C-alpha cells in the first residue's frame, strides 16, 4: 500500500504498512482499485455525455464510491471488492452502449478502461499495482492526487446534497472529466494545475448546492445554545455529517423513551429549525471524531456513524456501533438504505438503546453556534459597526478538521493567545479545539462564531463576500480576515481549493502541509497564493498581527 491522502500520513510522507487511520494494506489497495475503476467508467461517461447519453446508475456509483474511499469512512474489504466488480460491470455497460456508435473514445485503450476482475486473489494483485506510486513523475503524481482528493471531497458534498434530492449536472460532469483526466499521460503540469483550479470552482458550486439543500429542507441555522450535559434516559449518539439520517433518527425515536445526542460534526444539527421541535434531541456529547474511544465507551448507548470519521472501534462499544450510508467497518452492524422510497429502518438501534444505561456525564453547560450566513446577516449591522468602531480588529477563519496529533494543541493555544478584539470564524470539527474555552464576546458578539459543519465553510465565504460589499472593497484579501486553517481529510482539500478559486491569499494550513504536495507543486501554491504552514503560536501571531 501507499497512501498519503490525509494529514496523518505516516512520517509525513505516506502510510506503507498499515494506515495510521487503521486502514489495512489490502483495503488501501482495494480503495485504489476502486478509484481506478471509477476512472475507467469516467472515460466512457465523458464521451457518453458529449453524445447526450446518460447513465444514472454510473453517476450515482461514482459519487458514492468516491465518498467510500475518503479517510476513515469505510474499512470493509468485502464491500470494496463488491464495488469493484459492480464498477467494472457499469463501465462495460457504457462500452456496449457506445460500441454501436462507432465513435472515437479518448483513453478507451487505457488499462483502466479494459481490465477485467478475476478471482479475489487476482483482484488483490491488480489492486497492488494501480496505486498512487504507479505515476512515476512526482509532480504529475502530486497534481493528479491533489485533483483526486479535491474530487473526493466534492463527492462527499454531492452525496449529502443528493440524499436531499439536490443535484447539479455541471458538478457531476466535472467529476467525470476530472477522474478521466488523471489517466491522461499527455496532460502537462500546467494543464493539471488548471484542472485543480477548476476543481475549486466546482467546490464553490457544490458547497452552494449543499447549502441550498440543507437550508431549503431544514431551514436556516439559527443562533443556538446547545446542552453538553446529559439526561437520565437512555440515548443514541449520532455522528458524521448526514442530516437526512439525523432527521430520520429523530423521527423514529420520538415517543420511544430514547434520547438523541450528537457527536463531533453532527453538533450543527442542533442549529436547524426543523430539528428543534424534538424535545428528545437533548444535546451534544463529547468532542471531535478522534475522541471516540473514550467518549463512545462512556456514552453507554448505541452510536450511529453516518459518514467519516470512524476510529477503529474498541471492543467495549463495538457491539453498540452501527454504520450506515457509505461507511462500513468489518464486524460492525450496518443499517442499509431503505428499499425503494422507504426510509432507513433504525428500529434495531432504538431497541438496543432501550436496554442500555443513560450516558455517563463527562461535562456540563452549553456551547453556542449557528452563525451560518443567514444568522450572521441578521446581525450584520452590529458586526459592521463593531468593525468600524475598531471593537473588532480582525477575524480569524479557523475552520477545518481536528485530529489526534499532539501538535494540534497549537490551535487551542493560538485561539487562547488571540487578542481580545479578534473573532474566530469556524466550521468543521476543528472547532472543538477552542469552542469550550469561554473566550467571551465583543459587545454581545461571541468571539467564536461557529457556522456549522466543514461544508459550511461556504457560509464563511458568503459572510466574507458580504463584508467586502458592505465595506466597498475590490479584493477579498483587503478584508480584516486572516486564515489559519487546520486540515485532516479530503473534504478540507475541496474547501481549500474553493478558497483558492475565490482568490483568498495567504492561507496558513496546518498542522503540517499535505504530504501529497511535491516541492514543486507546493511552490506553485506558495508563489501564487501565499500558502504557508504553521510554526509556533508566538511566531505566527506576530506574523498575522503584523498584517492587520
Ligand atoms: Fe472532521 Fe472528519 Fe467534517 Fe472531516 S469529522 S475531519 O470528516 O469533514 O471535518
Ligand atoms: Fe495513512 Fe491517512 Fe491514508 Fe489512512 S488515509 S492510510 S492515515 S494517509
UniProtKB/TrEMBL annotation:
The record describes the protein's role as: Catalyzes the reduction of hydroxylamine to form NH(3) and H(2)O.
Species this protein is from:
Paenibacillus wynnii
Known EC number: 1.7.99.1
Q: Does the keyword Ligase apply?
A: no
Which CDD domains did the record assign? HCP
Q: How is the cofactor bound?
A: Binds 1 [4Fe-4S] cluster. Binds 1 hybrid [4Fe-2O-2S] cluster.
Task: Enumerate the subcellular locations listed in this protein's record, separating them with semicolons.
Answer: Cytoplasm
Q: Which Gene3D superfamilies match?
A: 1.20.1270.20, 3.40.50.2030
Q: Which residues bind hybrid [4Fe-2O-2S] cluster?
A: 241, 265, 309, 401, 429, 454, 489, 491
What family does the database annotate?
A: Belongs to the HCP family.
Keywords in UniProt for this one? 4Fe-4S, Cytoplasm, Iron, Iron-sulfur, Metal-binding, Oxidoreductase
- GO biological process, any: response to hydrogen peroxide
Q: Where does [4Fe-4S] cluster bind?
A: 3, 6, 15, 21
Q: Per its record, what are the GO molecular function terms?
A: 4 iron, 4 sulfur cluster binding; hydroxylamine reductase activity; metal ion binding; peroxidase activity
Q: Know the name of this protein?
A: Hydroxylamine reductase
Please name the Pfam families in this protein's record.
Prismane
As recorded in Swiss-Prot or TrEMBL, the protein's gene is named: hcp
| Superkingdom, taxonomy of origin | Bacteria
Q: Which residues carry this modification: Cysteine persulfide?
A: 401
Per the record, the coiled-coil ranges are none
Q: What InterPro entries does this protein's entry cite?
A: HCP/CODH (IPR004137), Hydroxylam_reduct (IPR010048), Prismane-like_a/b-sand (IPR016099), Prismane-like_sf (IPR011254), Prismane_a-bundle (IPR016100)
The UniProt catalytic activity note for this protein reads: A + NH4(+) + H2O = hydroxylamine + AH2 + H(+)
Amino acid at each position: 500500500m501507499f497512501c498519503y491522502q490525509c494529514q496523518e500520513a505516516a512520517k509525513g510522507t505516506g502510510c506503507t504498512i498499515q494506515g495510521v487511520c487503521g486502514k489495512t494494506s489490502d483495503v488501501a489497495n482495494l480503495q485504489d482499485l476502486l478509484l481506478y475503476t471509477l476512472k475507467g467508467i469516467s472515460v466512457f461517461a465523458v464521451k457518453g455525455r458529449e453524445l447526450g447519453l446518460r447513465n444514472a446508475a454510473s453517476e450515482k456509483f461514482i459519487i458514492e464510491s468516491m465518498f467510500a474511499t475518503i479517510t476513515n469512512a469505510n474499512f470493509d474489504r468485502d464491500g470494496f471488492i463488491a464495488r469493484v466488480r459492480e464498477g467494472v460491470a457499469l463501465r462495460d455497460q457504457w462500452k456496449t452502449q457506445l460500441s454501436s456508435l462507432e465513435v472515437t473514445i479518448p483513453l478507451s485503450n487505457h488499462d483502466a478502461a479494459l481490465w477485467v476482475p478475476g478471482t479475489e486473489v487476482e483482484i488483490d494483485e491488480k489492486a497492488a499495482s494501480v496505486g498512487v506510486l504507479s505515476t512515476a513523475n512526482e509532480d504529475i503524481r502530486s497534481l493528479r492526487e491533489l485533483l483526486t482528493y479535491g474530487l473526493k471531497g466534492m463527492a462527499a458534498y454531492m452525496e449529502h446534497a443528493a440524499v436531499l434530492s439536490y443535484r447539479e449536472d455541471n458538478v457531476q460532469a466535472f467529476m467525470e472529466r476530472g477522474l478521466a483526466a488523471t489517466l491522461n499521460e499527455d496532460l502537462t503540469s500546467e494543464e493539471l494545475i488548471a484542472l485543480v483550479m477548476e476543481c475549486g470552482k466546482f467546490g464553490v458550486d457544490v458547497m452552494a448546492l449543499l447549502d441550498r439543500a440543507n437550508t431549503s429542507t431544514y431551514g436556516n441555522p439559527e443562533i443556538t445554545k446547545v446542552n453538553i450535559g446529559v439526561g437520565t434516559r437512555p440515548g443514541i449518539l449520532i455522528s458524521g455529517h448526514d442530516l437526512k439520517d439525523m432527521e430520520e433518527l429523530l423521527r423514529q425515536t420520538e415517543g420511544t423513551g430514547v434520547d438523541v445526542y450528537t457527536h463531533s460534526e453532527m453538533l450543527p444539527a442542533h442549529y436547524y429549525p426543523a430539528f428543534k421541535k424534538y424535545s428528545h434531541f437533548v444535546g451534544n456529547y463529547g468532542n471531535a471524531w478522534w475522541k471516540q474511544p473514550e467518549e463512545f465507551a462512556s456514552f453507554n448507548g448505541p452510536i450511529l456513524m453516518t459518514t467519516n470519521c470512524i476510529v477503529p472501534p474498541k471492543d467495549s462499544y463495538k457491539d453498540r456501533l452501527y454504520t450506515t450510508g457509505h461507511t462500513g467497518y468489518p464486524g460492525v452492524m450496518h443499517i442499509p438504505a431503505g428499499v425503494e422510497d422507504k426510509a432507513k429502518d433504525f428500529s434495531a438501534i432504538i431497541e438496543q438503546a432501550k436496554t442500555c444505561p443513560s450516558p455517563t456525564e463527562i461535562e456540563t453547560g452549553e456551547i453556542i453556534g449557528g452563525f451560518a450566513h443567514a444568522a450572521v446577516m441578521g446581525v450584520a449591522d452590529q458586526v459592521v459597526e463593531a468593525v468600524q468602531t475598531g471593537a473588532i480588529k480582525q477575524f480569524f477563519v479557523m475552520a477545518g478538521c481536528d485530529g489526534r496529533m499532539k501538535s494540534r494543541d497549537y490551535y487551542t493555544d493560538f485561539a487562547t493567545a488571540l487578542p481580545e478584539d479578534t473573532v474566530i470564524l469556524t466550521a468543521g470539527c476543528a472547532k472543538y479545539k477552542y469552542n469550550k474555552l469561554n473566550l467571551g464576546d465583543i459587545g454581545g458578539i461571541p468571539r467564536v462564531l461557529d457556522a456549522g459543519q466543514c461544508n459550511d465553510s461556504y457560509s464563511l465565504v458568503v459572510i466574507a463576500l458580504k463584508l467586502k460589499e458592505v465595506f466597498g472593497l475590490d479584493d477579498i484579501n483587503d478584508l480584516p480576515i486572516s486564515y489559519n486553517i487546520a486540515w485532516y481529510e479530503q473534504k478540507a482539500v475541496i474547501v481549500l481549493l474553493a478558497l483558492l478559486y475565490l482568490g483568498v491569499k495567504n492561507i496558513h494550513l496546518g498542522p503540517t502541509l499535505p504530504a501529497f504536495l511535491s516541492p514543486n507543486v507546493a511552490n506553485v501554491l506558495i508563489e501564487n497564493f501565499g500558502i504557508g504552514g504553521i510554526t509556533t503560536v508566538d511566531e505566527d501571531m506576530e506574523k498575522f498581527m503584523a498584517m492587520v
